[in-house]
Amino acid sequence: MVNLNLQFDFQKIDEKDIDYTYLPESLKHTSISLSEISSNTLRLDANAYNIDAKVAKDIISNNRYGVVNLWSEKNGLVQSAFHRPRFKRIYVNNKNEIPFFQPSNITDVYPKPTKYISNKTDTDIEALKIKKGMLLMTVSGTIGKVAIAGEKLHNQVFSHDLLRITGKGKYDTGYIYSYFLTKTGQSILQSNNYGAVIKHIEPDHLENIIIPNAPEKLKREIHELVTKSYNLRDESNELIDEAEKMMYQELQLEPVKDLEFKYFDSSQNVRNFSTRLSNLDLRLDSSYHTPTTQAILDTIEKSAAQIVQIRDSSVSKRIVLPGRFKRVYVDSQNGIPFFGGKQINELNPDTEKFLSKSIHGTRLGKELLLHENCILITRSGTIGKVSLVPKHWENCAANEHIIRLFPANKDIAGYTYCWLNSEYGIELIKRHTYGAVVDEIDDNHVGNIPLPLLKNFEKQTEINNLVLSANKLRYEAYLLEQQAMEEMEDIIKSTKSDLKLL
């Protein structure tokens, strides 16, 4: 009787009144044969037989060009694949020693080292360096992020958690790269990972990955698109470097590490300093008043035509710090791409999260949506990552851990970014850090950051335009990469039956 009543009540509910937002996904399941287990190195974990990977393999196997194993002596596309052994790192604060990059840096448009290791580190430093043109893949924790090493990564030192891949053929590197940008390629790759807590893949797992055996002509087209995309990234970085160099020259700035820091007493390695009551700004934490900060302020004051605050109306329209909110995610058709602070330095943030347009519509327009040439600053956890929004991020959304600075106009946007992204700007951003456990800053802090304007306004305009040009090049790089992905998708989706229509 109870079941009947429940059935009757459910039938009275109108379909349009049912809220599907929080319904769980349907359970996915499949069956496998003993031969599949045998051919998969006797793996018994469910991930190795993931249904999405199985579907992906079926799709790949049915493409018109046939398949090859990615890494095989007979007909594979990979010449070599390896990562370096683990080693004990000696971290130092001295930026004159060895810059050390993390695997997560490979997808940054302008990769920068996050740490430095001592020259006395007991390992083969040369073996840890990567070379321009290498295909790089993250293999621990976050698996399957891929990039091609450009100028900024050439001869840089990376940790062991990075797979170094070289292709056999002239056009294989870009082709393989594009393959792993697709959901199909990623599904097959992810089915090879292992580990209960931290996921890993090994070089020999590439032997289990199939890839369409497209003709050389198609490989070449895709590879050249990818190569052009990375060349544009390098070109954009050169413009950023040129702009920053020009700004340093005009302001007569030297590297921050070379500034003269005036400590009250440095005897016995105990460094202390004093500050004036008028400079407290209601901050009693010593990090806010370090001699580094004071040296920066003294330096820019000497050569600037004028120093204004970021909040000044001539610099910014508004500075937005979104409030915390409960997020409702939906599918890509009904939502807005949504990403976080870890992704703001990527060319094309890879996200599987989409905010509901209907539920978050008002908040999206007021706080969350991004616009071209808007400046983003991470404000929680990792402080001071700075990014300039490219055109293809228009109408994407970023989370509340990112402060948005909307420039007053295009004539100041590039210059403001150049200053905030410099080591001087980053030091001034980090100056405002507060928090006992999680470091944070807020929109008021960003508004208080000083911006030195140049005596030579033409030079300031030139710097501004160099940065904006660099941002346009990044958009063009994105379009080329998307074109390469689309061509790869066409290859994947093609079927053997298509040959009959040719």
Features:
502 residues; 2 domains; alpha+beta; Adenine-n6-DNA-methyltransferase TaqI, Chain A, domain 2; four-stranded mixed sheet; single chain; four-stranded antiparallel sheet
Outline the secondary-structure elements.
Blueprint: H1 2-12, H2 34-39, H3 51-61, E1 67-69, E2 78-82, E3 91-92, E4 98-101, E5 115-117, H4 125-128, E6 135-140, E7 142-148, E8 157-158, E9 162-167, H5 172-181, H6 183-190, E10 210-212, H7 216-251, H8 291-303, E11 306-309, E12 316-320, E13 335-339, E14 354-356, H9 357-368, E15 375-378, E16 386-388, E17 397-398, E18 402-407, H10 410-421, H11 423-430, H12 443-447, E19 450-453, H13 457-493
Parallel strand pairs: 4-8, 13-17
Antiparallel strand pairs: 1-10, 2-9, 3-5, 4-5, 6-7, 6-9, 11-19, 12-18, 13-14, 15-16, 15-18
Number of domains: 2
Structural class: alpha+beta
> What is Rg?
26 Å
Architecture (CATH level 2) name of the largest domain:
Alpha-Beta Complex
Strand content: 15-25%
Helical run tally = 13
Unreliable spans are: 1-23
Strand order of the largest sheet: 2-9-6-7
